[in-house]
Design goal:
alpha+beta; 8-stranded parallel beta sheet; 6-stranded mixed beta sheet
Length: 690
């Protein structure tokens, strides 16, 4: 039979490692994965070791799952360290939904890399107070609870870091607990001043801390903004008497900038402005033969006149471009330039670096394809052939345009280039100039789209364009606002020069109003392509592109005349952007809350921002109710969880429709009638209650 010593020796030799020193302070043992008080699933956190993202002024929900054995109460702090090295401590609140999840919302303003960690602690006073209140109610263990309370309060009073007034109050409370009866114990356990004292500086004997994590705060325009796309060659273009066309220029395009800024947009995005290839130039509507005067696709970049660092001669000179950038800045607009890494057959790269392209067995260079689409006028770059040379050249091109005043790049088809390349490029460019922003145009599979965002893209096009039903929008908007918000910011473009969805083709004016209202209110970044306000909804047969596509020809539009005749949606776009500027809740991504209706076509959601984050000292709440069927009148009941903005269920409140000006008294259940042909959307402001 084994002796007692033998048994202990066997235990020490077992696979379970018995700690040889007391645990419970700091981060316990380096050999153990679990801290004394477990802290798991911290957020924000990005898989793969990438940093989480935020923009200056974004309210970030920090969360962690924390718990301990038994019934003792714990607390959790968030310790933030700013880029400048300043530390701040924030108390997390338990969600009390049975998940042991804790949360604190913090607005981050300073740009740069922040670090954060979660710290859990035993809340000794709260543990005693909870037990004391229960036992005092039935007069059980009264002497024991009095003695424990007196000892705990005396220990707190002895902490020299506490203010003198607090220490005196704690010492007095400790004295009162000597031989206290059940009534006095209950009074001390529920004392509001004591609760406030211990909330500010808890009394604790156990501490645990999570591994530090990082979140990078970028400039506000990386996460908030309204984009407008136009082709500068169309702005000021004129058809002459002989039938030829005189192209618009940067100088003539300047005249359109006040109109764009007047609609409240922040970014003016230009498709490629470089020389366009002559070889295999596409004609109108993507035909294979260009007629005399056809300008060609600006995405067929490069000619004997130059490549990606050159400007098309029809648009003007480098000085003209810089004048355009300055004029945009005067209007409060930033210029975004298209970065399309591909080449026309007569691009200088083809002659100087044929090794950068894929050569087929017959000796020809492979042109771009996206079946069923074919782009005979474009050669894609093969990044696996001379990657060092290609990487260096693209970096040179981007640096050139940054030197010309461009701080925003809309990247064409980044998913056809290595993700590793983008991580490298964006890391270098933004390291040199943190103001630079990259928008990913990757309409592709989720894994690739999300990986590009993790690798550094500040913004991403998304599936929004094709999410049109109530069910589709509910799933999509919830996902982008919560599931991927730590690393991916969706830019909700309602249309592009490549995309005219069936919803817009056949939904008429109502469809255009509905989509604009949802895009402008559901996420802090949205955009339109010129012509949207004119409801240009005729597609090339069998496609999702506008007929007479502006990629292949000039467009002549009478912006002012259309608005004077009442044919333009410019007033709506202007009003939507005004609402966005006035209501800070709409300039956040993660505060989207879905609500309900009894109709399969009535979408209901809200955006709420607490008073602590609005800058006005008042909360801001917007409710959006949209009829997503552009062909009908809908009547139904909508159901709201009013607790989201702090109003108990069943209580009434006033709402103002920011589009119509109507004011109604609402509660958590409300009747709505939305006529797609007259008033398809309510954008409601919850009025402050007296």
């Amino acid at each position: 039979m084994a002796s007692r010593n033998d048994t202990r020796t066997a235990a020490l030799r077992s696979p379970v490692q018995i700690p040889l020193r007391p645990l419970g302070h700091a981060d316990d043992s380096e050999d153990l994965r679990t801290t004394r008080i477990p802290l798991v699933s911290p957020s924000p956190q990005v898989p793969g070791g990438f940093s989480a993202k935020a923009f200056a002024g974004e309210v970030v929900p920090f969360g962690v799952t924390a718990f301990r054995e038994g019934h003792d109460v714990i607390g959790v702090h968030l310790r933030l360290t700013s880029p400048g090295g300043e530390e701040s401590l924030h108390r997390l609140t338990p969600l009390r939904d049975g998940t042991d999840r804790w949360r604190a919302d913090v607005a981050l303003y300073e740009r740069g890399a922040w670090t954060y960690r979660f710290e859990a602690f035993s809340d000794d006073f709260a543990t005693w107070a909870h037990a004391a209140e229960l036992k005092a109610a039935v007069d059980v263990d009264t002497p024991v609870m009095a003695a424990l309370g007196a000892e705990l309060l005396a220990r707190a009073a002895a902490e020299k870091r506490r203010p003198a007034a607090q220490r005196r109050h704690l010492a007095a409370a400790s004295q009162r607990m000597q031989d206290a009866d059940a009534q006095l114990i209950s009074a001390v356990a529920t004392d509001a001043e004591l609760a406030t004292i211990f909330a500010g500086r808890p009394l604790s004997t156990l501490h645990s801390a999570s591994t530090p994590l990082r979140i990078v705060v970028e400039r506000e325009l990386a996460g908030v903004g309204a984009w407008y796309e136009f082709f500068p060659r169309s702005e000021g273009a004129k058809r002459l008497k002989d039938g030829t066309v005189r192209s618009g220029t940067f100088r003539t395009a300047i005249k359109r900038l006040p109109g764009v800024a007047g609609m409240g947009f922040d970014v003016i995005y230009l498709p490629p402005i470089h020389p366009i290839g002559e070889i295999n130039r596409k004609g109108r509507n993507n035909t294979l033969e260009a007629l005399g005067g056809d300008p060609g696709s600006p995405y067929a970049i490069g000619s004997p006149d130059g490549g990606h660092d050159a400007i098309h001669r029809d648009l003007g000179t480098a000085a003209d471009f810089r004048a355009f950038v300055r004029a945009a800045h005067k209007e409060g607009l930033e210029v975004a330039l298209d970065l399309a890494l591909q080449a026309a057959p007569d691009h200088p790269w083809v002659a100087e670096h044929p090794e950068w392209f894929t050569v087929l067995p017959d000796g020809t260079i492979a042109y771009a394809e996206n079946p069923p689409k074919k782009y005979q006028d474009i050669y894609p770059i093969n990044f696996d052939r001379d990657p060092a040379g290609i990487y260096a050249e693209v970096l040179r091109v981007v640096r050139h345009w940054v030197s010309q005043g461009v701080k925003i790049f809309r990247v064409d088809n980044p998913h056809t280039k290595p993700v590793q390349f983008w991580e490298w490029l964006i890391g270098i460019v933004c390291g040199e100039d943190p103001d630079v922003i990259f928008l990913s145009e990757a309409f592709t599979r989720p894994a690739m789209m999300q990986s590009l965002a993790k690798a550094g893209f500040q913004q991403s096009y998304s599936y929004f364009t094709w999410r049109n039903t109530k069910a589709e929008l509910e799933e999509f908007l919830t996902s982008v606002s919560h599931d991927t918000a730590d690393f991916m910011r969706p830019n909700l473009f309602v249309n592009t020069h490549d995309i005219l969805t069936e919803y817009l083709q056949f939904g008429g004016r109502a469809a255009y109003r509905i989509r604009a209202a949802i895009a402008a209110t559901a996420a802090p970044i949205w955009g339109v392509y010129a012509g949207y306000e004119l409801v240009e909804n005729v597609a090339r047969p069998g496609s999702e592109e506008n007929i007479d596509n502006e990629k292949y020809e000039y467009k002549y539009r009478d912006w002012d005349g259309a608005e004077e005749r009442g044919d333009s949606l410019a007033p709506l776009l202007r009003r939507l952007n005004e609402i966005r500027r006035t209501h800070p809740a709409l300039r956040q991504l993660r505060n989207f809350s879905l609500h309900w209706s009894d109709d399969d076509s009535i979408l209901v959601y809200s955006k709420h921002l607490d008073a602590a984050f609005t800058g006005t000292g008042k909360p801001d709440t917007i409710i959006v109710v949209a009829n997503v069927d552009p062909h009908s009148v809908r009547q139904t009941m909508v159901h709201l969880d009013t607790r989201v903005w702090g109003i108990p269920l069943g209580e009434s409140f006033e709402v103002e429709d920011l589009l119509s000006g109507s004011v109604w008294t609402w509660s958590d259940h409300n009747y709505v009638r939305l006529d797609a042909f007259a008033e398809p959307v309510h954008i409601l402001r919850v009025k402050e209650r007296a």
